[in-house]
Amino acid sequence: MSSEIKKKKFGYSKFEKMNFPFIYLMIAFPIIQFLVFWVYVNASSIALSFQTAQGEFTFRNISAVFKAFNTVDSYGLNFGESLKHSLIIWGISHLIVFPISIITTYILQRQIFGHYVWRVCYIIPSLMGSIIWTTLIKYIVAYDGPVVTLLLQAGADLPEMVRHSGLLASEKTALPTVIAVSTIMGLVGNSAVLTGAFSRVPDEIFESAKLDGAGFWRECFQIAIPCVWSTLVMMMTFSLCSIFTSDVNVFLYSNGTGEPGMTTVGFHLYIITYRISMSGGARTSYGYPAALGLVLTCMTLPVVLIGRWLLDKLQDAVEL
Question: Are the CB atoms for 115 and 199 separated by under 8 Å?
């Protein structure tokens, strides 16, 4: 039987089948990674989601999670409020700040006057550690800090709590302050990745566009962004994974309390787990936070899959 007849019968030639081990290894790697770093790591948490404190099978933990959307749970926390805060932070960070960061990074990348200096100044805040950055912000927005002082000099009507303890001490100003800080950090947080993506676009493309009469903004939206779209899709997919768990160092800003009105889902999960561990609770006592994590995973999965599908469809349109 000739090689062509064998290929027609079995689909692949002997030479092509020699590449199969490499293909199998490439496929096996993400599968093994998923089994080890998600299934194995989360197997005990999934089991705890359906256990009582005595180790008996129950759906009470799942039911308690859905009840906590509208009421205060047994730990004195309002999950619905924490979820609302996380969604607000995520919406501002990824729907408003992210597009702005794309444009600002491109502007700096196109070698405007003094672009090296501006790029360094732009990236420096993201190089600071979270503890250092948080400590600096807490001083800036303190009652005797520059922000409150300037607001008082401008005649702003600040709450009494702000006048005595700063912007992070009042429910009216604490969350907006944290969101403002996360906005500033978000503008520079993606700069390193975006700068690398834009730098890989050949300069000849922009030179050709200029010869055709394309302006700066046309270059940005019709040439630069489509050329780095695959990188943007990756970053937006990762952002969808954090849609329900966006956190902004609430623990550090609130000294571990989440007050006043700064709780997020990430802090919510942390503080419940921390309280159980500090109270010396048994392993089965973690049923409620485990169920909360499972519900969040089930909520995030369809959002990520649908979002990735839409981004792929949009990518096809962009490439056209």
Answer: no
Name residue, tokens 């709590």: 161
* Phi and psi torsions of 57, nearest 5°: -70, 135
Which has the closest alpha carbon to 98: 245, 235, 216?
A: 235
- Count CB atoms within 10 A of the CB of residue 44: 12
In angstroms, rounded to a whole number, what is the distance separating the alpha carbons of residues 27 and 8? 25
What's the token pair of residue 292? 């909360």
Q: Could you count the other beta carbons within 10 Å of the beta carbon of residue 28?
A: 10
According to CATH, what is the number of the domain 72-319? 1.10.3720.10
Are 62 and 288 a contacting pair, CB within 8 Å?
A: no
User: pLDDT tens across 113-140, in order?
Assistant: 666 666 676 667 667 777 888 888 888 8
Task: Name residues of the chain where pLDDT drops below 50.
Answer: 1-2, 5-9
Pull the structure tokens for residue 305: 């899959």
Residue spans of the domains in the chain: they are 3-48, 72-319
- Report how far residue 298's alpha carbon sits from residue 42's, in angstroms, rounded to the nearest whole number: 13
- List pLDDT tens digits, range 212-236: 888 888 888 888 888 888 888 888 8
Residue 72 backbone zone (phi > 0: left; psi -120 to 50: alpha; other: beta): beta
Scored b (16 or more CB within 10 A) or e, 108-124 reads bbeeeeeeeeebeebbe
Please tell me the distance from the alpha carbon of residue 124 to that of residue 76, in angstroms, as a whole number. 39
- Per-residue confidence (pLDDT) for residue 302, from 0 to 100: 93
Q: How far is CA 136 from CA 142, 176, 318, in A?
A: 10, 17, 42
